[in-house]
Amino acid sequence: MSREKGDLLEDRVANDLGIKKTTNSGAKWDNADLSNRKLIIECKVKDKEGFQGCKGEIKKLIAQAAKHSKEWAYIQQNKSGTFVVIDYNYFLELLDKKNDS
Questions:
Q1: The whole model's pTM is what?
Q2: Spatial separation of the C-alpha atoms in residues 28 and 48, rounded to whole Å
Q3: Which of 58, 66, 79, 86 lies at a C-alpha separation of 20 to 30 Å from 10?
Q4: Tell me: the pLDDT tens digits for 26-79?
């Protein structure tokens, strides 16, 4: 997939969440594509229909998050849409915060 499409997804997510892009997609600091104090995010664009398997990518992201004591999110965009994978307990925490509002 083209780097340009990946950059566009990273820019969109960074803008939507008010989070900064990691320099060189996190390669230097092992900190994914986007990060803040609480969260690291990996963004991927796939050129197929439907969510694509990403076990290795998520496993790496979980290890990075643990290393930095952060939560993680994996965002994949493909021809079917944009999907987010997060830890179930983090999902429950987010729901609880939303329900408290």
A1: 0.85
A2: 29
A3: 66
A4: 455 566 889 999 999 999 999 888 888 788 999 999 999 999 999 999 999 999
Residues 6+ apart with CB under 8 A from 3: none
At residue 15 the predicted structure's pLDDT band, cuts being 50, 70 and 90, is very high
How many structural domains does the chain have? 1
**What is the residue range of 52's domain?**
3-100
What length does the chain have?
Answer: 101
CATH number of the domain that 23 lies in?
3.40.1350.10
Helix (H/G/I), strand (E/B), else coil: 4: helix
8 Å CB contact between 43 and 33: yes
